[in-house]
Amino acid sequence: MTEISSPYIARPRIMVLGVQPGTPPFRIVEIDGQVVGEARAVTDVLAAAAAFGITVHDLDDPDVVRWVGGDKFTWTVH
Fold first, then answer.
1. Rounded to the nearest 5°, which phi and psi values hold at 29?
2. 3-class SS at 17?
3. Are 35 and 29 in contact (CB under 8 A)?
C-alpha cells in the first residue's frame, strides 16, 4: 500500500483568525506562524501578504489562505 493513512492538510502561509470585538472589529493576520497585524478588510490581508512577498491570486484557495471563524466576507462579530 502506497497511500498514507491520514489525509493531506494544507498549511497555508497566511492565516486570518476570527473576528475580534473592537471599533471597528478586526481579524488578526498570521504569516508563517507569526502575528503580523490586524485586518479590518480583505484589502488589509492582501497588503500584509504583499509586505511579506506573497502574491495572492485566489483568497478562496485553502493552500494559500486559511480563514478561521468565517470567510473573506466575515468582518463583524456575530
1. -110, 130
2. strand
3. yes
Tens digits of residue pLDDT in 20-66: 999 999 999 999 999 999 999 999 999 999 999 999 999 999 999 99
40's grid cell: 479590518
Q: Is 11 exposed, middle or buried (0-12, 13-18, 19+ CB in 10 A)?
A: exposed
What pTM value is reported for the model?
0.84
CA distances in angstroms from 78 to 27, 53, 69, listed in the order given: 13, 33, 10
> What confidence category does residue 11 fall into, taking pLDDT thresholds of 50, 70 and 90?
confident
